[in-house]
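Progress against Task 2.4 (sequence-to-structure conversion) is shown through the following example record, which the project officer requested during the mid-term review.
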Amino acid sequence: MALRVERRSVLVCAALALAVAALGVLTLGTGSISLTPAQVLSALFDPGADSRDRLVVVTWRLPRLLFAIVCGAALAISGALFQSLTKNPLGSPDVIGFASGSYAGASVVMLLIGTANYLAVATGSLIGGAGTALLVYLLAYRGGLAPFRLIIVGIAVGAFLSSLTSMLLLSVNPQQAMLAATWGAGSLSGLGFEQLRTTAVVFVVLLICSAAVVRPLVHLELGDDAAVALGVNAQRARLAATLVGVALTALVTAAVGPISFIALAAPQIALRLTRSSTTVRIVPAALTGAAVLVGADFIAQRVDLPVGVITVCVGGVYLAWLLARQYAGRRG
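Structure tokens generated for the chain above:
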């Protein structure tokens, strides 16, 4: 049985990787200058390819595609960690307020301190996300951490922070507000290899940290008593997973702005594809998140909108379906 499930997971991961590659070639080859798949592959892997094709594919379009892959994977892993922690498909960082905290922290840096420096915005985003996580944790803790209470408190804190961010946008001059609002819509445009290098290095570090917290989380899904019997320090494992999840969300928010619903939907899609017993399978979730965000960005480029607008439109429908499904399950 275990072998069958493992084989299915491997096949699903391979199919997802192929989907990401196919979407990537399609994205790199379409736009104001159209290229065939053969031209795209030649520009990517042949140093002697046409210099014009290499300029379009490698210099102009490849950084955006790589950002979509990294950010989609980071959001999906963050969502998988939080959904495992809360044992609820609604327990993703954008629903329980952590993404709003990262957005608020980055907005304070851009609007009050007055800098759009990448490291400064990333620091503000991380502090905002971590501070929000601490606040939600303290408000939800009542001698223990009930998952449903954590979600409700997180939604309330997220709504409060979104209101504060809106007030901040209204208090600055129109140029600043427009700049911050455009960034807040979540966009992958205007990014280059310089920003990608920093983001990729941090992502790899957080990916290693994520792998380290997976096993304790799987044990915690069996219950605290069972986890403790298996040698897991429950509170320490939850704290570590929370910090890693917040850092992954903050990483994406700092780089491209808040992008909603990838963290919510990708782990659940991966769960259904692999038929796994746990959401905390980070490889299928990461590949699903990458595929979804690359696909959303392909659409965003065709309709000339920020990718965050596309994910909100699609994700809103998914959230409504998820809430209806949970309500029907409770009635059943």
